Fold:
Amino acid sequence: MKILKAVIVLFLLSPVLISDHAYAAEQGQEDVYKKRMELYTKVEAVSQIPWYYIAAVDQYERNVRQARRDLPKAEGISGVYFKPEEWAGLLNPNLEDDNPVSIQFFNGIGFDGNGDGKASLKDDEDVLQAFAQYLLSYGTDHDNLKIGLWNYYKRDKTVAIIIGKAMIYKHFGRLNLDSHVFPMPLRSNHSYNNTWGDARGWGGRRIHEGTDIFAGYGVPVRATGYGIVEMKGWNKYGGWRVGIRDINNTYHYYAHLSGFAKELKVGQIVEPGTVIGGVGSSGYGPPGTSGKFPPHLHYGMYKDNGYTEWSFDPYPHLKLWARQERANLKKK
Structure:
């Protein structure tokens, strides 16, 4: 009987315990955002490079490290990674060198950013100030910062992604941009299953790189998160489609649309719930082809790791975002 009572009490308390745990996790992440912003504004004060460029580089590097196995995961609040030989200098016999004088002698990128007399690869402020000093050698204006980024990464797409992140941070003026919504209004009549990886035959054998969400013509299609519109136009497979890059290096692909939102354009900043178009059945032919399949939204997600981009299953994310949105609506 005592065991039964204990189980009942635990069951009744579990929502409270879960809620408290979620709140603690949320507060912990808010503290991280606060510390990062303090760091970015410090770097801006020293280098005169706007904080949102520093934040964009830091976030890009963090995302890349999360997506790759050949790079160590970030241990501090900063995500920027330098190889020890880059930091200390290629010919430096001591790859753990933290002496700014000897690092400079060996042409290392290491920098004493906090004035403690050491240029430590394990110090977040030193690392971010070092990257800022590299960019500062090109200038502080937008065009010269882009040149500096290209000379560092040697990849056009990386530069475009970082600049996109910078514009998002500048637009919203904050770092906490992780909330999401379902790509259609929850009240709409829609249905979907996990169709990622299914075979597709039109245009040659290939796998289905997304989840199909079936709904009526014209049902609003919404941006699922904060991001920037990278692509808008026609594709023979996807019909009228939109591509949005979010703050976490994820590319969100919306295809088979009936059309686009009136003011939507490439380079536009969006947020969760921004209407980008409507459900349709466009695609599988030249521009304007429609009606070869039932109306639905093809929703795909792709991750960039600094070298290439690959598709991953959006279904679990869609289920999660729907649950989160319902929970948030109940709070209002």
